[in-house]
Design goal:
Order of helices and strands: HEHEEEHEHHEHEEHEHEEHEEEEEEEEEE
Strand order of the largest sheet: 1-2-5-6-7-8-9-10
Strand content: 15-25%
CATH class of the largest domain: Alpha Beta
Bound molecules: ligand LM2, calcium ion
Radius of gyration: 23 Å
Distance between the termini: 44 Å
Largest sheet: 8 strands, parallel, barrel
């Protein structure tokens, strides 16, 4: 049994009305992704269904999906500790660019994009373009390959840095992560590194990405972007078409760690948006310090973003965790943190930092574990009622904050309050207000909300129906002050539309 951690408030799908065609069109027109749900390794049929019934109605602007290209399909276990035939990471080893994957086939992918867009949800794809495979000889689509030879694409030995003699390490791997030539041109964990400076390679990669754009995809999470380097990233990006909505594709670069000089995330700010892994670490440190017993303080989040050493908000794709970091709980929170993870996700949506993502995927006991799949490795439909999945994107408090995010827009943070322990509150201009209690006891606070006087329905625990609230009501006096109870590991939030 996967340990679910402290119970999340509920994972029921919100019973919201489907999105009208006019609302969907208006959302697609926006160049911004809004709040994205990262439905990592959900199959295409399940993503389509989630777009229709949950993401669109809740106001998510985007969905990010796992790498859709054909990948290695392992046929035997390795030796020693290798116990999982189809680990989640098979999909990070591309074999060819037809969309025959563990998540479904090319037709199902196209149907998914169409369904999501009809619900007003733009689709973002995890693009694995730095490398091919490091093992195996056959793929989910049945293509055969040998090391440095992929007839179906085709890539030949000279399309790789290793064979071209351009990787300056003794074994072809990255031995020194501070050495830019090794980082750009050697094999990351044995994955055959593409010669991305070569035009013929760029053309093949761009053809793949342009196919996805042609299907209606709005942009990419660029896997291992740090290992491609600024110049080659720009070279590939320059070959990309505009999206069907007429925008330049979204381009979010994975640049981990704090490498020196050109290897730092900040050194890529001109080349695309950056994945906010360092920010997620600060979030984890605030919500939960290194050991479970020593609880961190969210008061530290008063200073977050550029002022805490992170990439600029306007250049960042922000999140509380992703598929790598959730498996590294010393670094980031994950679903096993239960209410703390939900609270951190709600805070991220309120913070105004970056383009926020909500991560939702399958539960696991060992890091390599396969997503729920059949014996062939094909991922089975997501079942949010089962303990095999953690559908954080459906949590009612998270859904409430998606609506709040959409309403407050870019309004500046104001009226920051902290008890200097584990409670914070702030407004976003005069449009919305939220409070977060990361402590283990409920707390009553008396604060300036910055909101117009009146009675507001707490959107985290209720909703406004006509002129009634199905949950707690907060009274804001004519001077903007309010006395509010915030539950342990819980939030209170409302925006102007929640006024009764
Ligand atoms: C990423 N970003 O830069 C992904 O977010 C991360 O999940 C990927 O690693 C990595 N880069 C490559 O795309 C994962 C996983 C690795 C796994 C690779 C390739 O974390 O453990 O490596 O995908 O599937 C596996 C084995 C590794 C082996 C390698 C090649 O774990 O031991 O290396 O395959 O055979 C000898
Ligand atoms: Ca590379």
């Amino acid at each position: 049994m996967p340990s679910a951690g402290p119970a999340t408030r509920s994972t029921a799908a919100p019973e919201a009305a489907p999105v009208s065609a006019a609302v969907a069109r208006a959302r697609l027109r926006s160049a911004s992704p809004g709040v994205t749900a990262n439905l990592w390794e959900w199959n295409w049929v399940s993503v389509a269904q989630e777009c229709r019934t949950v993401l669109g109605p809740a106001g998510y602007g985007g969905v990010q999906v796992a790498p859709p290209q054909d990948s290695v399909k392992r046929t035997a276990l390795g030796n020693g500790s290798d116990t999982v035939l189809h680990p989640w990471w098979e999909v990070y080893q591309p074999v060819r660019y037809q969309l025959t994957s563990r998540m479904g086939n090319e037709q199902q992918f196209q149907d998914m994009v169409r369904a999501c867009r009809r619900a007003g949800v733009k689709v973002y794809v995890d693009a694995v373009i730095n490398h091919t495979t490091g093992q195996g000889n056959t793929s989910y689509g049945g293509a055969s390959y040998t090391p440095y030879n992929y007839p179906a694409i085709p890539y030949r030995p000279n399309d790789f840095h290793f064979n071209a003699g351009e990787c300056p390490s003794s074994d072809g791997g990255i031995q020194d992560f501070n050495n830019k030539l090794q980082v750009f041109k050697c094999n990351l964990v044995g994955l055959e590194d593409l010669r991305t400076e070569q035009n013929s390679v760029r053309i093949k990669l761009a053809r793949y990405l342009n196919k996805l754009i042609g299907y209606g995809v709005s942009g990419f999470r660029v896997d291992a972007a740090k290992h491609i380097g600024q110049k080659d990233l720009d070279g590939i990006y320059a070959k990309l078409n505009r999206t069907v909505d007429g925008h330049k594709p979204y381009w979010a670069l994975e640049v981990l760690g704090d490498g020196p000089g050109v290897l730092a995330p900040q050194a890529f700010e001109r080349n695309g948006k950056l994945l906010g892994a360092n920010g997620a670490k600060q979030i984890k440190n605030a919500f939960k310090s290194y050991t479970q017993e020593r609880i961190g303080s969210i008061a530290t989040l008063e200073v977050f973003g550029r002022d805490s050493g992170l990439t600029r908000s306007s250049r960042t794709s922000s999140f509380v965790q992703n598929h790598d970091s959730e498996r590294n709980p010393n670094d980031h929170l994950n679903y096993k943190d239960g209410a703390t993870n939900i609270l951190a996700t709600e805070w991220l949506l309120a913070s105004g930092y970056g383009d926020p993502q909500v991560y939702a995927s399958f539960t696991w006991e060992i890091p390599e574990q396969s997503p729920p799949a059949n014996a062939e490795g094909l991922i089975t439909n997501t079942d949010c009622a089962s303990s095999q999945w953690a559908c954080v994107n459906r949590d009612p408090g998270v859904v409430a904050m998606v609506g709040w995010y959409n309403y407050v827009g870019k309004a500046q943070r104001r009226n920051f309050y902290t008890d200097d322990a584990n409670v914070i509150a702030f407004s976003r201009g005069q449009r919305g207000w939220a409070a977060f209690n990361n402590g283990t006891e409920a707390k009553q606070i008396n604060v300036q909300t910055g909101m117009a006087g009146g009675r507001y329905c707490d959107a985290i625990h209720g909703s406004k129906v006509g002129n009634r609230c199905t949950g707690p009501v907060v009274r804001v006096n004519a001077a903007g002050r309010a006395t509010v109870s915030v539950g342990a590991k819980d939030a209170v939030a409302f925006d102007r539309l929640d006024r009764l």
